[in-house]
From TrEMBL:
Organism: Penicillium alfredii
UniProtKB keywords: Acyltransferase, Transferase
Pfam entry (one): Acetyltransf_10
A GO cellular component annotation in the UniProt record: cytoplasm
PANTHER family registered for this protein in UniProt: SEROTONIN N-ACETYLTRANSFERASE
Domain N-acetyltransferase residues, every copy: 145-278
PROSITE patterns: GNAT (PS51186)
Protein name per UniProt: N-acetyltransferase domain-containing protein
InterPro entries the record matches: Acyl_CoA_acyltransferase (IPR016181), GNAT_dom (IPR000182), SNAT-like (IPR051635)
Keyword Acyltransferase: yes
Record region (Disordered): 1-20
Coiled coil: none
SUPFAM superfamilies reported in the protein's UniProt record: Acyl-CoA N-acyltransferases (Nat) (SSF55729)
One GO molecular-function entry: aralkylamine N-acetyltransferase activity
Amino acid sequence: MSDPSELPSESMPRAESELKPLSNAEDLALSNSASAQIARILNPTDLALVNGFAIDDDEDADEDYVAVDQDDANDMPYWFRRPPIYNRSKLDELHPFVQLLSVSNVDDCVQVENAFPEPERCSREKFIYRLSRCPELSLGLFTLPVIEEGVPKPRATLVGHIIATRTSEPCVTDRSMRLPTNWQSERWTIEEGQAVGHEEGGGTIAIHSLAVLPEHQGKQVGSTLMKSYINRIREAQIADRIAIIAHDHLVPFYESFGFESHGLSKCQFGGGGWVDLV
């Protein structure tokens, strides 16, 4: 209790009385020299003592103060003040930034998609469909060069992209990758009792393309894109899982982000031979 008035009356000393000495104080009496030695042990800093407690005497402190020549000071604080050494990477040289894509980026996406073998590329019409139907599931990494003051700002260059749709299946399927025949007039397309293309409300984000311009591969563009994409989907909490198909040599790359291999995929897009990753 912080308020003394709340203390029990028997615990409070009377104002007119002082603390009584120990009953055996006489037995503890010491010689002057012994007392001085004990005082030095208990009070090595030679602070003044009042009732056994050290107090700081400002006057004595001034007398004991010793000026230190700055030339003799340790230089260690300098090393703590130095900024950390940062080695710029090839990615830094691109001055990259990420943002969602739209139909206005279709031509850029077609250019980036040329990094894939022709049978595995997304068509221009599919890009228009996916970026008009579900642009919030896309992400692009752009580069914008540093320009001199007064020079017109150039158009940013798309270096890499992730394009995806939703599906109710746990993995990427051929149906989820198909282009619905009536997508321009119908929001949903059902063929043979099953949805085709993008499914609104589907619990799986089906990534159909993670591509990087050939001249910028090996600069951590793909890994930066994937990390950013996963964080965005996780924070938005808009799906239960993210799925992708990949060839065998890329499985370790996706596993490094937390994807798990589900074996050979049934998807035959581009000739098949894919691995399901979720």
